[in-house]
Specification:
Number of strands of chain A: 11
Shape of chain A: globular
Distance between the termini of chain B: 40 Å
Structural class of chain B: mainly beta
Shape of chain B: globular
Order of helices and strands of chain A: EEEEEEEEEEE
Largest interface: A-B, 20 and 18 residues
Strand content of chain B: over 45%
Number of helices of chain B: 0
Number of helices of chain A: 0
Number of strands of chain B: 11
Distance between the termini of chain A: 36 Å
Strand content of chain A: over 45%
Order of helices and strands of chain B: EEEEEEEEEEE
Helix content of chain B: under 10%
Oligomer: heterodimer
């Protein structure tokens, strides 16, 4: 199975900050990399698929980038509702998730 | 509006069985791949079964292969997960999820049903 390593595992940030989360895969997944947001007690919510395509209804402050083995999720200006855990997931082969990045309020 | 509603979770003893159900609405059920994804407390999600839109392609990870069976009833717009020989490590919230464009990119999730395996 393809392993996904997210960094950092957690971060503290303020409203308005620019936040960058990285995801590295153990082998190339081309652009078959997705990002999800999960708030406490809720199901994950698809933010970005195909590495950089924004899912319908997701604010444009969420930006995905990368290809091959290195990917990023950028939140250009953190909003109060963005404090959550973020997961990357590859859909290139048997699907697997990264360990998650918890974004907390500073 | 797309909706996925799971049921069937609960407390079961190790070695026991449980059948989860998911009723789908708001889309053409037979046109989409469907999966079950579970999430143990404090852990990342894990896909435990996949069924293609045709129903001809089914897959499981090694962790549940031979113990879990995915099925569907198109007439009832329903997806099922039969879980046998349950273990403590199967304890998790189980989500019914819809595949985006036939892939394992999941664009709609149910609210989840909790399965607890404990004596």
């Amino acid at each position: 199975d393809i392993q996904l390593t997210q960094s950092p595992s957690s971060l503290s940030a303020s409203v308005g900050d620019r936040v960058i989360i990285t995801c590295r895969t153990s082998q190339s997944v081309t652009i078959h990399l997705n990002w999800y947001q999960q708030r406490p007690g809720k199901a994950p919510n698809l933010l970005i698929f195909g590495a950089s395509t924004l899912q319908n209804g997701v604010p444009s402050r969420f930006i995905g980038g990368g290809s091959g083995t290195d990917f990023t999720l950028t939140i250009s200006s953190l909003q109060p509702e963005d404090f959550a855990t973020y997961y990357c997931q590859q859909s290139y082969s048997t699907p697997t998730f990264g360990g998650g990045t918890k974004v907390e309020i500073k | 509006e797309v909706q996925l509603v799971e049921s069937g979770g609960g407390l079961v003893q190790p070695g026991g069985s449980l059948r989860l159900s998911c009723v789908a609405s708001g889309f053409t059920f037979s046109a989409y791949s469907m999966s079950w994804v579970r999430q143990a407390p404090g852990k990342e999600p894990e896909c435990v079964s996949f069924m293609s839109s045709s129903g001809n392609s089914i897959d499981y990870p090694d962790s549940v292969k031979g113990r879990f069976t995915i099925s569907r009833d198109i007439a009832k717009n329903s997806l099922y997960l039969q879980m046998n020989s349950l273990r403590a490590e199967d304890t998790a919230v189980y989500y019914c999820v819809r595949g985006h464009s036939g892939s394992s990119t999941w664009d709609y999730w149910g609210q989840g049903t909790l399965v607890t395996v404990s004596s």
